[in-house]
């Protein structure tokens, strides 16, 4: 990768050959390069430069629900767009958020004003961009039901706005962002004001604390649920794989669909462990569970 052209882009901060563990929530050790981008114009220049160099890139967001494996062949990009905090001073009918706005800030806003519908992403670590991309959700619902439109940067540098409808999202995925495209912002609605939302969010946060390993190094849910009957965590627990692991990695004793990093595990070791889990799950259930975590 020719880095001089990237370093000369205003609004880009490039870190080369560093430990990337702090850029994902599971903190797997790997050495690679990452560019922090603080404006849309800088992002457009960066992607054009990478296109000329024929260099692969990947958006990391908050690094939740993903594992960075092919670090020697990819430039990782983290968006750090400024946003107008004053928009959260009071409730609005519609909100327009840049992709890097953290979900926990929106949860705080929902609690303060009783924003109905926003409880669905309670406790999810990440940003708006990443949440929209994977249609993040909890047992309370999915963020896709709240998204009215998404502004996207295409690989050719064109910016367009996609208007969402009932067919725009599926279970932990979207159907409109193409490979190489980047979510820049999203317009989000709510379902009115409800004073009970504050209590609902508090209760769900407490529930997550008692049922999921929120304080350990992990990537969130590893597998998607096969269906309503065969849920990933329950299935892994049933076949006796809680606490299974090696090389500082193990299946969580609290929730079997989480893999915890207790030391300095690597992305390759994570892949090996997950491959073993997939084999055992299929052997005992006859069903192929699909990864929810993205391995790049």
What would you say this structure looks like, in words?
Helix 3 (103-113) crosses helix 5 (197-211). The chain is α+β, with helices and mostly antiparallel strands. Helices cover 26% and strands 23% of the residues.
Write the layout of secondary structure elements.
Elements: H1 4-7, E1 12-19, E2 31-37, H2 40-53, E3 56-59, E4 66-67, E5 74-79, E6 95-98, H3 103-113, H4 128-133, E7 137-138, E8 141-142, E9 147-153, E10 159-163, E11 169-170, E12 173-174, E13 182-188, H5 197-211, H6 232-238, E14 245-246, E15 249-251, E16 259-261, H7 267-285, E17 294-295
Parallel strand pairs: 2-5, 3-5, 4-17
Antiparallel strand pairs: 1-2, 6-13, 7-8, 9-10, 9-13, 11-12, 14-15, 15-16
Helix pairs in contact: 3-5
Explain briefly what this protein structure is.
This protein has 296 residues and is of the alpha+beta class. The protein folds into three domains: 4-79, Uridine Diphospho-n-acetylenolpyruvylglucosamine Reductase, domain 2, CATH 3.30.43; 85-198, Uridine Diphospho-n-acetylenolpyruvylglucosamine Reductase, domain 3, CATH 3.30.465.10; 214-295, UDP-N-acetylenolpyruvoylglucosamine reductase, C-terminal domain (Uridine Diphospho-n-acetylenolpyruvylglucosamine Reductase, domain 1, Alpha-Beta Complex), CATH 3.90.78.10.
